[in-house]
Specification:
The complex is a heterodimer of chains A (540) and B (413).
Chain A: E1 11-14, H1 18-29, E2 34-37, E3 53-54, H2 58-61, H3 65-81, E4 86-87, E5 91-95, H4 102-114, E6 119-121, H5 123-129, E7 139-143, E8 146-148, H6 150-163, E9 167-169, E10 172-180, E11 183-191, E12 197-201, E13 204-207, H7 213-219, E14 226-236, E15 244-247, E16 256-260, E17 263-267, E18 271-272, H8 285-298, E19 307-318, E20 333-337, H9 338-342, E21 347-352, H10 358-373, H11 400-409, H12 421-424, E22 426-428, E23 433-434, H13 435-444, H14 450-457, H15 470-480, H16 485-503, H17 509-525
Parallel strand pairs in A: 1-2, 1-13, 2-9, 5-15, 13-21
Antiparallel strand pairs in A: 3-8, 4-8, 5-7, 6-7, 10-11, 11-12, 14-17, 14-18, 14-19, 15-16, 16-17, 20-21, 22-23
Helix pairs in contact in A: 1-6, 1-10, 13-15, 15-16, 16-17
Chain B: E1 2-8, H1 12-23, E2 28-31, E3 44-45, E4 50-51, E5 54-55, H2 59-63, H3 77-93, E6 98-99, E7 106-109, E8 115-118, E9 120-122, E10 127-128, E11 138-144, H4 152-161, E12 165-171, H5 174-179, H6 188-195, H7 198-211, E13 217-221, H8 230-237, E14 242-245, H9 252-267, E15 271-273, E16 278-284, E17 287-293, E18 302-308, E19 319-320, E20 325-326, E21 334-335, E22 358-359, E23 368-369, E24 372-373, E25 377-379, H10 395-411
Helix pairs in contact in B: 1-9, 1-10, 3-10, 7-8
The chains are: A alpha+beta (540), B alpha/beta (413).
């Protein structure tokens, strides 16, 4: 750490979500020296707690045309530059008997105006395309929705930033902005693993911390008018639907069902929460009830499908500066140059927006950064593929584990060690993660703790929620990352606690059964509770 | 078909009860859905390991302090010690050599190196009276190469903390090296199947001899003795002392307990209906008169007495849906909190209320249906309410002792 204490960069980017990773990549591609700093793990915030939906923009077409247009443009871009993160599922907007079919006409017109291909299809055709859809539907529109893996997308942006010289620090929380002569000149950080304090300097700091950006701005005594909007979602144990299913009505709660990998996700709710809750969100029974009730209307089979877990994220919504009440909240992109807005130099906030528009947000922020730093280099991120997406990469007839690796890492899959028996040994059978893939994640994807491994490889994300593989994965990682045994066991305990946190709101039926097995194995057989932290820590 | 007693459930509790009855001449049928929780067992049986988070040294003293609703408290104290001895005898008769005594707990070593109080432990597994006894010893952790379910770094760390001088090594044999070619083959049961063959065992012994020179004790993963007691063979072939340490599931020692008890039932003429589930019970007055199963829908199975030993949620003895908890085989009355939010606790390792949910019984373990006691039906083991088996380390003890208590009740009639 010592050598980093006085390290100087062109840009410090705060926040390891998709926006921060995207900004870091864009800055690095334009030749800036970058430090990306994240207080916990990459995608620990809203980036890892959403639908995984590659919006076509259709959802916003009627109510927010600007967002809709941005969405469809970015949708088309991401299909090219992030193809290994995208699954081209297509989407349906269905009208149910309780909905007003007249809305469909407005909807299609608005989509067309925004440049979104929206095709009305016969309800029977919709059932043929998507057998899981509610068969009582009276209308259907096909749109270019898709699913996208936000963990992979963020990791790929981070990886490309690193390949272009960026430094990345995870588990480093910015505790103070260093302000001198009316300008932000750097940040003070606390290393959450060691407790050490360190500093980094740059003429420009970009606040890309999502909802936590509000708190970062406060460190400079600035007010960004943010409204934390909690969205809760449920993960079902298998992939009921093959296409994204939306309700064709004014956007409301729980009206999107997205197929992601081997599961599907229903969401979301939208409720304002106080800032002191954003680090410890809980999904309430009422939210679970609502999500199930509405979800069943999209795909009746959900009524009898096991729910794996529940989770919630916080959207960083921003009200206009002249609207302190927050009545006119937009989901549009907000770029604040605090020099012109507040008279504080060296500091930019990029917020609002959506995961869908992260690349555009990064481009806007980096354009401003370049202008401030006097760098004249055009943005390439709309055309340059992310690492792993250089070309379509699918070899047929390979072992399923290799196919799974390619699905996760695209063209980078051949970098995964598989020459020896131990490399090929299976750690997680649900998601087919090998020792080799874990090695790769340790070496290239900033995975040093078990919780990181889940987000980089999907280990323990399947139906057993880690009961059968988490100890195996923790021990493999302990040896790969040379972690101390006690620390590794502590991490294992906090990861199991994290798995339970998501299972608890839906702990009945098979999920309660699975939870009891988890306790039988980890507490009964192993006595892992003896290695858990005294503070009932949950992995972040 | 008419039996003296029908046992519903083939886990540790059901098998124990069936074995006690069968060896005393009863005509017994046992209906079992399949794998039991023994597949996640440590190789030990526990009486009472923890109380309010603290290690219990003398289980019977701890049991006296349990609350009245606990299944142990429904058995008279003087009987408990007798039944504990009977349990040990039964295991021995089934061919399971166990060490330990009911008066004072010993410690078993868990797969991750923690020490957990236990009553009886399979003879080939390592146990400790105190954590000081390994102080200064030279230990070798000898793993099977490529076996990922035995975290040697964790074990080594724990054993070192106890003062042992620990080295880790791994070995393979021709057969095991071949098995590794399949990425998922290196699981405990599969390895045990290979090592059950004499040639493979001899190859393993040669490797262990080579690696273990100069060590006071060689510790192996518990992947031995699925089919027969080949740990004895290995001991003869290996020059230095060897002991096993439990692995992550599936549990070879647990499956051995299951196999031996099943074998004992067979020897004593118990009828075992495998892969079948009781789906209906016929009641008359205060009695259960017959049951049907999924496979024998048309045939009523009849007995004088019935025993429900279907386990907790994990085994399907209890089921929950969105808002209710029920006992699915006979729809007996269940003790559980009303509201779903009260079933669980926020933190995984806190006391989880649902663990103690179960079938409500009288002090004689008779369950209730529609407000009435069913006088020829008993409930035993993890399906009973009032026992937090994991938190207190009581699960297997409650399974065996309630089974034996009920067996006596039935035999005394």
């Amino acid at each position: 750490m010592a050598e980093r204490q006085h390290k100087t960069f062109d840009v410090i980017v705060i926040g390891g979500g998709i926006t921060g990773a995207g900004v870091a990549r864009d800055c690095a591609l334009r030749g800036l020296s970058v430090l990306l700093v994240e207080k916990y793990d990459l995608t620990n915030g809203a980036s890892g707690r959403n639908h995984g939906l590659l919006h076509s923009g259709a959802r916003y077409a009627v109510t927010d045309k600007e967002s809709a247009t941005e969405c469809i443009q970015e949708n088309m871009t991401l299909r090219k530059i992030a193809r290994h993160c995208v699954e081209e599922t297509e989407g349906l907007f269905i009208t149910l008997p309780e909905d007003d079919l007249c809305y469909q006409k407005n909807f299609v017109e608005a989509c067309t105006e925004a440049g979104i291909r929206a095709e009305i299809i016969d309800p029977k055709e919709a059932i043929r395309l998507e057998p899981a859809v509610n068969p009582t539907l009276i209308g259907a529109v096909k749109v270019p929705d898709a699913s996208i893996d936000p963990f992979r997308l963020t990791a790929a942006n981070m990886l490309d930033a690193k390949l272009h010289g960026a430094d990345v620090l995870t588990y480093h929380e910015v505790t103070r902005l260093i302000i001198r002569n009316g300008s932000v000149e750097g940040v003070v950080m606390c290393n959450h693993k060691t407790g050490e304090i360190c500093e980094a300097y740059a003429p420009l700091t970009i606040n890309a911390a999502g909802i936590w950006g509000h708190l970062i701005a406060q460190m400079a005594d600035l007010t960004v008018n943010m409204f934390p909007a909690k969205g809760a979602l449920l993960v079902f144990g298998h992939r009921v639907n093959q296409m994204v299913i939306n309700r064709c009505r004014k956007p409301a709660n729980a009206d999107i069902l997205v197929p992601d990998d081997a599961v599907c996700v229903i969401g979301t709710t939208s409720d304002r929460v106080p800032f002191d809750e954003i680090d410890r969100l809980k999904v309430t029974p009422e939210e679970v009830d609502l999500l199930i009730r509405e979800g069943e209307k999209l795909a009746p089979a959900l009524a009898t499908t096991r729910i794996l877990r529940a989770y919630a994220g916080v959207r960083p919504l921003v009200a206009a500066d002249n609207d302190p009440s927050g009545r006119n909240i937009s989901r549009g992109i907000v770029l604040l140059d605090h020099e012109t807005r507040d008279g504080l130099g060296g500091f930019i906030t990029i917020t609002g927006g959506k995961m869908m528009t992260y690349r555009l947000m990064a481009e806007l922020a980096t354009d401003l950064a370049c202008k401030k730093l006097g760098v004249d280099k055009a943005c390439e991120t709309a055309t340059k593929p992310l690492p792993g997406s250089e070309k379509t990469y699918r070899k047929r007839g390979l072992p399923t584990a290799v196919v799974a690796e390619e699905g996760r890492h695209g063209t980078l899959a051949p970098l995964i060690p598989n020459a020896t028996d131990i490399d090929r040994a299976m750690v997680c059978e649900c998601e087919e993660v090998t020792v080799g893939e874990m090695k790769y994640a340790v070496e290239t994807l900033h995975a040093t703790q078990l919780i990181n491994m889940r987000r980089r490889t999907r280990v323990s994300m399947g139906t057993c929620q880690g009961t059968l593989c988490a100890c195996r994965a923790a021990h493999v990682l302990c040896e790969l990352a040379k972690t101390e045994a006690k620390q590794s066991q502590y991490e294992l305990a906090s990861v199991m606690a994290e798995r339970w946190k998501g299972m608890r709101p839906v702990a009945w039926g098979d999920t309660l059964k699975e939870a009891q097995l988890m306790s039988v194995v980890y507490e009964g057989l192993c006595g892992l509770n003896q290695r858990a932290g005294k503070g009932k820590e949950i992995a972040q | 078909m008419k039996f003296d007693t029908i046992i519903i459930g083939g886990g540790l509790s059901g098998m124990t009860c069936a074995a006690m009855l069968a060896k005393n001449g009863q005509k017994v049928a046992l209906v079992t859905a399949g794998q039991s929780c023994l597949h996640f067992n440590s190789g030990s049986i526990e009486l009472l390991g923890f109380q309010e988070g603290k290690v219990v040294e003398r289980p019977f003293e701890g049991i006296a302090q349990l609350n009245e609703a606990h299944p142990y408290r429904k058995i008279k104290t003087e009987k408990l010690t007798v039944y504990a001895e009977e349990a040990r005898t039964l295991l021995a008769e089934a061919g399971l050599k166990m060490k330990g005594n009911a008066e004072k707990n010993h410690f078993r070593l868990s797969p991750i190196g923690t020490t957990i109080p236990a009553w009886l432990t399979l003879e080939d597994l390592i146990t400790l009276e105190t954590t000081a006894e390994l102080n200064g010893k030279k230990l070798l952790l000898a793993n099977v190469e490529g076996f990922l379910d035995w975290p040697t770094a964790y074990l080594s760390d724990s054993l070192s903390a106890m003062g042992a001088n620990v080295k880790t090594a791994s070995f393979t044999t021709e057969a095991l090296a071949f098995a590794r070619k399949s990425p998922t083959e290196m699981r405990a049961i599969n390895i045990a199947k290979y090592l059950d063959k004499a040639q493979n065992m001899a190859d393993a012994a040669r490797e262990i001899n080579r690696l273990g020179k100069g060590f006071d004790l060689v510790l192996l993963p518990a992947v031995l003795g699925l089919a027969h007691d080949n740990i004895d063979l290995l001991r003869k072939a290996v020059e230095m002392p060897i002991e096993c340490v439990a692995t992550m599931p599936p549990s070879v020692p647990g499956i051995r307990i299951e196999n031996k008890l099943r074998g004992f039932l067979g020897q004593h003429g118990a009828v075992v209906l495998n892969s079948d589930t009781v789906n209906n019970g016929f009641f008359e007055g205060d009695k259960l008169t017959a049951i049907t199963t999924e496979k024998l829908e048309e045939t009523r199975l009849e007995a004088n007495q019935y025993v429900l030993a279907t386990g907790s949620f994990l085994s399907g003895g209890l089921v929950s849906d969105y808002q209710t908890i029920t006992e699915p085989a006979l729809h007996l009355e269940v003790e559980a909190h009303e509201s779903r939010t009260q079933w669980t606790s926020e933190y995984l390792f806190d006391e989880q209320p649902y663990m103690a949910f179960g079938v409500k019984t009288t002090d004689d373990f008779h369950p209730m249906k529609d407000g009435k006691t069913v006088t020829n039906l008993y409930a035993i083991g993890s399906v009973l309410s009032g026992n937090s088996g994991i938190k207190q380390a009581t699960g297997t003890g409650v399974s065996m002792l309630t089974a034996i208590a009920v067996a006596h009740n039935i035999l005394n009639q």
